[in-house]
Amino acid sequence: xxxxxxxxxxxxxxxxxxxxxxxxxxxxxxxxxxxxxxxxxxxxxxxxxxxxxxxxxxxxxxxxxxxxxxxxxxxxxxxxxxxxxxxxxxxxxxxxxxxxxxxxxxxxxxxxxxxxxx
Amino acid sequence: xxxxxxxxxxxxxxxxxxxxxxxxxxxxxxxxxxxxxxxxxxxxxxxxxxxxxxxxxxxxxxxxxxxxxxxxxxxxxxxxxxxxxxxxxxxxxxxxxxxxxxxxxxxxxxxxxx
Lengths: 118, 114
Hints:
The complex is a heterodimer of chains A (118) and B (114). Chain A is mainly β and 118 residues long. Chain A contains no helices and eleven strands. Chain A has strands spanning 5-7, 10-13, 19-24, 31-38, 42-50, 53-56, 65-71, 74-79, 88-95, 108-109, 113-117. In chain A, the strands form two sheets. In chain A, strands 2, 4, 5, 6, 9, 10 and 11 form a seven-stranded mixed β-sheet that branches. With 114 residues, chain B is mainly β. Chain B is 0% helix and 54% strand. Chain B has no helices and eleven strands. The chains are: A mainly beta (118), B mainly beta (114).
């Protein structure tokens, strides 16, 4: 398997522009997570999906952020309008539920998208 | 306030030295994981511990889960430059309704000098 695929790897944009980050999870995984990583705040969970349905979006910073998962093989994270403080590395990760729903399975992370908002 | 407190935040040592990284919380976790992240890449799982008091070894790395499942430690023996990276602990809260959700610590940046 190719692993989790994210695009673009790097994005530089100007304040006020719309930014769309893309993720293709590992085939067969039914959980998808979006994280943001900065030096100041570390790795923060933004939102996660189970079987394409958003389960917990409490980490989404504000209404400028939105995420969708139209099918099992694709998800987007959109920022509109973008601001300099959104500059960070955004990771997508996927996993599958353990039998019986007990414990926590491995999350497989993509390589991340480094976003710079000028 | 971080749910999982990692210490130290930075660690710079010489090759051959031993080190321990700690991950502490006031909350109980059903499981705890340790990840390692290299520059320009995403975190990669090293180990998962699920039983209080559990000890797992991975070559020169020893992981321990506290008896009360509130804390964990990562010990590296005879560190090598290849161990350099960001180490992250992550836990799944016990009794939580959000299955699959992990809470990450702030991370420990380890640098091992030749």
